[in-house]
Amino acid sequence: MTTAPTPVPAPAAADPSGGPGAPGAATASPTPRPVRRRPRGGAWLATVPLLAFFLIGFGLPAVAIVTGAFTVSSDAETGAGSFTTANLTDSVQGAYWTALLSSVKLSALTALIGTVLGVPIAQAVLTSRFRLLREAVLTASGVLANFGGLPLAFAFVATLGNAGEVTKMFHLTDHGWSLYSFSGLTVTYLYFLVPLMVLTITPALEGLRVQWREAAQNNRATALQYWRHVALPILFPSLLGGFVLLFGSAFAAYATAAAMVGATVPLISRQIADALSGNVLVGQGNLALALSLDMIIVAVLVMAVYLPLQRRSARWLS
Fold it and tell me: Residue 82 in 3-state DSSP?
């Protein structure tokens, strides 16, 4: 009796695309999707210290400023007061309005100069072949960006004051130089604003991709055309963000200007200090809060311009 041969299954047709029908290819099982773990119910407790710090450090002072700016004290014993808009009206008149405009002018000018000087310095450091130079500049920028107040005022008075070493060496007084003026305060603020801009813009410059520069070179674009049409439009939101940061630092600075120029240059921070201490008039605490509210409004307006552009820059640099 002859046994019939066992039929052998024919090999699967080879798939030219290398798919499952390719010879010797094993059927791949579908990749399991990662299981997302839901956060535990008590995970939000980790944010409680941060929220508490924010409410105590920022929330309560903000509420006190807004409340006091619209209040006039009517009872000295109990501290009770009534609603009024006279404080805000007075804060934008006379010497207070002059001080506010002077602070905005000084902050905008120093922030603009700091941005213009800080970007090429940061770019030169990033493109340098010497790693030690880059680390030294960034470290020094971190130190100088936080150097201010009375030590900074003393350093400039001893160097560029009327009897300063540099002033006497180059006879700057004969050329009309005065440290205790608007221009002198501008130079002093640049001492810590330029390093701050270097630290701020360095991550954005590092985010510029090499492929963009190579593509521009392949299309016969010069270095100036690359920066004008490619790099600067992408960096513009970051540049504006650095400008806002520098503006806020200069706008809120107090100790350096108070120790160096005093009342020579009218500034809103000096007006707030005088109103709180009663150097001009007694009982002007609510007016000082109104002046503080003016500063907050200026900062909010500047941030309203910056935030939409920052989101656009993040999409390109991410």
Answer: strand
- pTM of the predicted structure, to 2 decimals: 0.77
- Cα of 114 vs its chain's centroid, Å: 12
CA angle 116, 119, 124 (to 5 degrees): 130
The torsion angles phi and psi of 73, rounded to 5 degrees, stand at -70, 130
Q: Does the CA dihedral 11-16-18-20 come out positive or negative?
A: negative
3-state SS, residue 81: strand
Label the pairing between strands 81-83 and 71-73. antiparallel
Nearest to 276 by CA among 264, 265, 284, 268: 284
In this prediction, residue 317 carries a pLDDT of 60
pLDDT tens digits, residue range 200-236?
Answer: 999 889 888 888 888 988 988 898 899 988 888 888 8
Kind and range of the H or E run holding 299: helix 285-317
Lowest mean per-residue pLDDT among 18-27, 55-64, 79-88: 18-27
